[in-house]
User: Fold this.
Amino acid sequence: METLKFEGTPEQEKELQAVFKKYENVPGRLMPVLQEAQDIYGYLPIEVQRMIADALGISLSEVYGVATFYSQFSLSPKGENRISVCLGTACYVKGADKVLAEIENQLGIKAGECTPDRKFSIDTCRCVGACGLAPVIMINDKVYGKVDPKQVSAILDEYRGEADKK
Assistant:
């Protein structure tokens, strides 16, 4: 997995400092601080986790432990186009694993990762509630049903810029 360089801005850091001030004397402040930090940065890179630990006077391992325990938090950036592949039972038995493998192959990344240009990220989920359309993928808020691995390239082309198209 290629690690993407952290690209925080001074404006984001200023926003985060305001969050620290807002929760200065609030008991149980780690969760809301993590939530607001993720809203600011889009994810919780180690650099942001360090800032949170320092500001709250707690260990980095405590911040990391909470950030990795709750599925609402992400330690890696998400792409401009977020791909979610359903691996629930109905989708899996209809070949979702093969669809996922083709998406990973086409983009050169694995589930949980983001392309170096931050255009795409891939995640998996357990059910999107569209079992009759299995296998299902979602890109951003658009649902694609009865997806065959042979369709992946055409679907991704809808989201690639003209320069990226093959």
